[in-house]
Amino acid sequence: MELWQNIPFFSILLSLASASFTSIMPARAARRTAIVVTSAVLCMSAALIGFTTAYGGSYTFMMGHFPAPWGNEIRAGVLEAVTAFAFSLIMLISLLGGLTKIEEHVEEGKQNLYFIMCELLLTALLAQVYTNDLFTAYVFVEIMTIAACSLITSRIKGRTLFAATRYMIMNLLGSGLFLLGLTLLYDLTGHLLMEDIREQVRMLAQTGLYHQPLTVVIALMCIGLAIKSALFPFHTWLPDAYGYSTPASSAMLSSLVSKGYIFLLIKIIYRVIGLDVIRDSGIDNVLLIFALVGIVMGSVSAIRERDIRRMVSYSSVAQIGYIFMGIGLGTEAGLVAALFHIIAHAAAKSMLFLSTSGLCEVSGERRLFRDLRGSAYRNPIAGIAFVVGAFSMVGIPFMGGFMSKLCFASAAMETGGARMLLVLLVLAISTALNTLYFLRTVITIYRPTIREYPEAASFRPHASFVVAMVAAIAVNVALGVCSQPVLNAIAAGLTCFG
């Protein structure tokens, strides 16, 4: 094998090994290690995009050169490379943008533990992207769950402990359902490698054997990952978990953790089960209904909020509904739209959570809208970043969110019939609702202040925060202006994904 084909393995191993070494480091060294490792993974992922594009397909890598079931397989193509690049970039932006608050919210003696969890989270994300073994994917799902829960509780506060408890209960329920589905699938097929399972599932579908057990397997795995990714109505843990964590944790939880679960679900649907089997089971219709309802209800809940961070959290419920809507369409065009929105939403949502932190910081750490008037003048870079993120979520042209909605509308029109009408109607309603609550927030932060904030007069944003916001703004604009290469890479990767 060529040396570059080891990049996925090196990326996972580097992240995992750094988590071990970080445990004996002081806080400052742990912070630098996390940033350096994430940057290294970002560079390796960028290189892998170039190599896989030139290679023109996907390949498998047997770890230790031991075949299954004794060894473990990694599979990489352009889609996996693009996803790993996007995840590592958002992780780096989240770390840089939230560094000052990590130092403030996390006890000094425990800050190295925080960065251990960040590195384990990155390891789990990369493993879910690259693994070709379904049980390995489950193992790293659990590692990511533990890391995410630790990131929530890193800010010692009564509300965060309550949020972490709810998060753990709901996510363990999702994990249990997913594991039960995985166990039944192994019982039906006798395999854990994704391609081998796909062959057996195709044979079962053609012969009609075990039709009902196979449908139960699909339902269990889809519901389990839907709970973990906060699809409506399984979202009740989300507002507190996102709204009360330290900003870096909120950015990573909203933009990476839920997206990692959804990416795994897409792998299962497309590579393990098959789109044709999913359509025959009717599960895509169920996901579509929950997604459409979630888009509207998440937006309505956001409108009712008076706390800016909880408003952004409820917005995530609606945006996760968009991704499941693309999956529920049951077409390749729908999956391309869903995968693009995973990247676009991750870029915008991390920036929104970090910028709201900057706006609250110059408002006496108050989060209610009435206290945030004029905050965009007191912290200009945070105000600009919030506006860009809001424009992307609403779907303003030249933003990543606009291209997402355009792709969803195009995919819906390909299906025709009632699905097309429902999707287009919900897209229109959601856009109007998004405009309502984001426009209200933008107007609020640029309205003249009604109280004095003496501490804001001497406020200067930290250099890392400015760098993170500028990078996030550039990514969001790039996804809107230069979206076609990304869409082409996703489509090409999806072609050789199965």
Task: Explain what the structure shows.
The structure is a single chain. The chain has a domain at 282-498. It has a two-stranded antiparallel sheet with strand order 1-2. Helix content is 78%, strand content 2%. The longest helix is centred in the middle third of the chain and has 32 residues, at 158-189. The protein is mainly α and 498 residues long.
Radius of gyration: 22 Å
Distance between the termini: 22 Å
| Share of residues in helices | over 70%
Order of helices and strands: HHEEHHHHHHHHHHHHHHHHHHH
In the sheet with the most strands, the strands line up as 1-2
Summed over residues and divided by their number, the pLDDT gives a mean of 87
Strand residue content: under 5%
Number of strands: 2
Uncertain runs: none
The description of the largest β-sheet is: 2 strands, antiparallel
Number of separate helices:
21
Q: What structural class results from the helix and strand content?
A: mainly alpha
What best-fitting shape do the alpha-carbon axes yield?
globular
Annotate the secondary structure layout:
Layout: H1 7-22, H2 27-55, E1 59-63, E2 72-76, H3 78-97, H4 99-105, H5 111-130, H6 134-153, H7 158-189, H8 194-207, H9 211-228, H10 238-243, H11 247-273, H12 275-281, H13 283-304, H14 308-328, H15 332-361, H16 375-378, H17 380-394, H18 400-415, H19 417-446, H20 463-481, H21 483-495
Antiparallel strand pairs: 1-2
Helix pairs in contact: 1-2, 1-5, 2-3, 2-5, 3-5, 3-11, 3-15, 3-20, 3-21, 5-6, 5-11, 6-7, 6-11, 7-8, 7-9, 8-11, 9-11, 11-14, 11-15, 13-14, 13-19, 14-15, 14-19, 15-17, 15-18, 15-20, 15-21, 17-19, 17-20, 18-19, 18-20
